[in-house]
User: Fold these one by one.
Assistant:
Number 1:
Amino acid sequence: MALLEVKDLDVRFAVRGGDLKALRRISFSLDKGERLGLVGESGAGKSVAAFSILNLIAKPGYIAGGQILFEGRDLAAMSERELRRIRGNRIAMIFQDPMMTLNPVLTIGTQMVEAIQAHRKISRRQAREIALDRLRKVQIPSPEKRLDQYPHELSGGMRQRVIIAIALLLDPDIIIADEPTTALDVTIQAEIMALLLELCERENVALMLITHDLGVVSQVTQRMLVMYSGRIIEQGPTREIINDAQHPYTQGLINALPQMGEPGGAIVPDPRLHAVAEERALGVPLPPPLPLRQRAVPAVDAGLCPFRQRGRGLLRSEQPD
Amino acid sequence: MTSPLVSIRGLEKRFDLSGGLLEQITFEKGRFRRRQEAVHAINGVDLDVQRGEALCVVGESGCGKSTVARTVMGLISPSAGEIHYDGQRIDNLEGKAALPYRRRMQMIFQNPYASLNPRMTIQQTLEEPIRFHFPTWSAAEVRDKVHEVMQSVGIDPDWGSRFGHEFSGGQRQRIAIARALAVDPEFIVADEPISALDVSIQAQVLNLLMDAQESRSLTYLFITHDLAVVEHFGTRVAVMYLGRVCELADTRTLFATPRHPYTQALLSAIPKLEDDRPNHIRLQGEVPTPVNLPSGCVFHGRCPYANERCRREVPKLIATDGGTRVACHAVEEGRL
């Protein structure tokens, strides 16, 4: 049985003039120790998907239907009190902006101890030991000193390391990371991603990585979901999708990436980038049955669109092996 | 060789951190002392932008790339150094004397959500610079020009009465580009014009900028932190680190044979689609603060090849046989 199984999850935002459907009955699963990537453009629903797992959807958003089974128990049906025992404990979260996550008026140590004591009945001193151990794991220089520092005294990369240390505090089964390196520079991003990958492998933690960067997904995850306007339009093993994407949107997304030439200069990239045709303006209602039709006109005309062929998304998981 | 369109000489910019005189004075060991601190954003940059090229300036946050862009545009004044445009020194021009250059040089900003006035329609936004720089034009001429630039960036001219918020990010950035193109400039400074956009939209905007360069023979100074984009866009690339240029080369040469250890690390840090695992060059530590600059080479604290000379002496940009200009003692001495 999968560690986490999301079934027909339907999340809506109650706005003037009706519900905005952020997730349209999406289903996916995550195994123990597995690393799953969620990609898509802004507004595709990838963050909502991640947030709704821990019921962190703020009003006017609400879960309108579906199940979120964690070890067979439905998180969507749990009371806030029960959910609090899982949040941060069994399922931890890493957010995009470390400055928003850390409390600016408490020291790193206080925040870490607080998180441990919220879930375990142990003394301050023991909790501090655990905190120190996790800071060592994320390779922060002079961890003892960091415990007594405030977030503003650390650099952006260091803060994100602290966040990862906090996520690891209670030995979670799943870490949900929402764009964990988007606010960081490339060299720091590379360090943080390498660290996160190494820790997940060593501690056998499942990772759900939300990102818009296909390169990062390729480096870190084993399986990926591509989302578009609240639906999963393609899912499967990361390598397979990147090498041979089936959905025209995924193909467009991959082709739109700037191609890096080979070191040594053997392959020179095409100077023109391949744009994905037409974008969706914010606030414009989605074309209901085939949200991609407008942007995939050539594919539809050529009869290549899987939506047209099969009436719905062509999912790798549906294909026989 | 023709003279460069824009030439930057010995540019320095410091931002004072110490506040007013009273805040600077401290009382220590029985004496008053005055203390001044400054962020050294640019520390001696020399760059030439040739006509018709796209010079990309890349680097991580805080390396001074945006400050270079803003100083060139005259949005901030340099602490030292000179900026020449078409042979004329422009960093000391004021008022009316600067006006012709303001038309010939235009800027595109990073965030199209912030750079468009929310209370003006697109028509008004695009008409304003034209009316300002061509006061003798008739209303019909202005309208025609707006019509033309909107078409050239792929925005339906009928949408002129809409406001900025009614457009998506990519459309807004195209409008910002239209505004820059409206006064027929020769030189455009683009400060991270695609960083706020989704990947699929980035491609559109970059292609648009490239088309405009071809059809209007524009010269670009393109500021970005995204090296992958540079490989498509730039004629030449300048890599900056802590306010200095550490490598300057033709785009193809830079990507094929990066010479400076920082450039090598930067290139290796970009996650590529064909990677199964992160495989970047690990740098020690983090970027030092630009308030207290390291002595010698600014990169020496993180550089695996640093030696005594690197800690002592500031490396100069030196031409190598490959045509690259590199500021690195290790490269100069043949250690790297």
Number 2:
Amino acid sequence: MLAYVLLWMVLWAMVGGVMTPRIYARKDLDVANTGLAGALMGAALGPFGLALLWWRSPKLTGRWLATPGVLAVLLFAAAFARTYPGNLCVSNGSFVVTQVVNGLILGLIYGLMALGLTLIFSILGVVSFSHGEFYMIGGMLVYYMSVVWLPGLNPLVALVGAALITFLIGVVFERLFLRVMNTGQVERPGEYAILVTFGLAFFLQYLTLALVGATPKKAPRFLDYPRLDWPSPENPWLLRMRAGTVEFLDTVSIATPRVTAALIAMVMLLILMWFLYRTWIGKALRAVSEDRQAAAVTGINPDTMNTLAFGMGTMLAGLSGASLVQVFSWVPWVGTLASARAFVIIVLGGMGSLPGAFVGGLIVGLVEALGAGCIPDPQRAAAYIPAYGMVILTLVLLLKPTGLFGREL
Amino acid sequence: MKRRLVLWGGAALGILLLVVAPFTFLHQAYLVHIGIVALFYAILASSWSLLAGYAGQFSFGHMAFMAIGAYTTGLIGKFVRLASAPTGTCTEFPLGGWYLVLQNATGPNCLERGMAQMPPGSLIVQPPILVGILAGTLLGGIFGWLIGVLVLRLRRTYLALFTIGFSEILRVAINAEIDITDGPNGLELDPLFPNGLTLFGRYFEPTDKLPPYFVMLGLFVVSMWLMSWLASSRFGLFIRAIREDQEAAAALGVHVVRYKVLVFVVTSMIAAAAGAVQAHYIGVITPNILLILQMSLVISMAVIGGLESLVGAAIGAILLEFALEFLRRSFTIGTLTVDMTTWRLVFFGILLMLTLRFQRNGLIHPLLERITRAEALRETVAKRQAPAEV
């Protein structure tokens, strides 16, 4: 049944996506977002929704996009529940909640990393293809500092060290290789930036592989949580905390390293928001992203801001890697998947949009967690995890290249 | 006129060198093997330079088209058979007096069950390798057309992201669909000449390296000829115009959509053909050829050779492939063992970044320009000096 419903949805989404812009164009109306609205409407309500859309052809506000979007997701969920009544995602509520919370926690950290990428894009106009490598280096540095070089070092100190080092690498790279983009020393700077950051990714990944080898590393958890039962030790229905897991309401059980990572990400987000909106340098950064020349006129040096933004971007990637090294095992090529995910997030959220990166991160985290948990054939589901994000990326690029919060092109 | 002579002479000399090379002191199986791989990368790097350097379409999905070619011919070899009588158990289509049989991927093999019911003496044959390679090339072209149409609206970064996405989805799907593609273990393919080959009275084993070398060399020469012809024709002019300024090109009457799609189709067909031949030569194809590393190698070769020069990219690929192979040897300084299998790639990355930063036109391309334009340079200098003497 699910297959038929999917076929129906995809078919009408394609009809809607292709035909709606033409009908709007024929009626001499604004065609912005028509492809997306048509596709969503077709997926949610089939021919009826499309008939309504084409007959009335309303001005496409956010409501005309959100309502069919939600309806389409609900329709899919209902069909899924009917087809697989025994699936854990349908029959077991606490499993779903656990997956959702885990997805949101990871999404928060992915969002932090994507925030770095979007910061770089909004100021340099460059998508750094080496972002994932900084994520990997951040994790490696924490592992080496707290386990190999200085055993017993508090991992949180190592975290700060990793942030500083990734910041410095970013700054040096920007000064050596990206500064020339604005001085007219390279032709076609946009393409130069793609290739040179790609080259950096290649270099960093193999340098790390040559230095540390291919065996997976796993840092011990940063914090051991105290044993805590609440409201009472006999009946801890609200909260049961152990060194390795935290359980809320007897249903949601989360590994503590993930909680620590989420806390670090939240603190970093707050610091970043404070920095960008309350300090002079932060305001200068945002000014450069709005209008480079106007900012230069008011006495902000755009080149310095470029360097700073690139360093901060790489530092955010390093930090998210550093906080996840206690959750996942770490190999020199973890960055490839992470950078792919960061691309998905910033395209979904809208290139250069800070809230977009955050919301996009949460969505991608959710989709990955639910996708991995719910798809009936678990082995195949696990194998397809890297593809979910890429499917989102492809769809967004085709239907709405500006993303959720992006400026119109 | 002189320049044209130099170009043709250079091309003839280069081909002659490549033809004669395996019969000279270089006649060792290992060296011929590297030669085949180098030619394979040369085809990929030069077709990528046509796509990225000439047309300005920075696609990171070139290896995906290569893999489509390779997997198509591999899957045809694994699943498609021609039978002289209907099996009754498989999916099959009549084809002339024969039947095109598709075997099933899961469950008991339908062909083996069907053979029991077939009339005695009926034949089951595998389609020839050439058919698989042609089908792979064709499918590569179809996917190139599809991707070309989908990315029409996307530029630069968006295009790069989209093509990475396409390549990754393909890699993950091949990895996951183990029943069909054999997943990470890799799909096994027949050699290019499964029954060996007799040429000029000499018999070559199926594992002999010389026939695949000449097949790859032939493909290389044909694709280089095709691409140079395209690049020097109106097509090349138009795609360079689109690269420089799409709107201006369209305003001057260039059919932007047609040429953008066409360049995708041509380059992906060439990549797919190279992939199909290479897969048959190696004998196994794994999803790892879709890793970003492989794409980085092709990009580095094209950039170091010369992004906007087909011949430069090809020579760069051949030189770098040999360099990579000879740098494989690890060595020891005192107690420290340097594992060159990884470090050579580190140096490669540094070389790529430095080339991009300081030698935008690559390392090989300016040398070629010097040679082919030496005469023009002398003439210009002579012309400039002539009035001074008067």
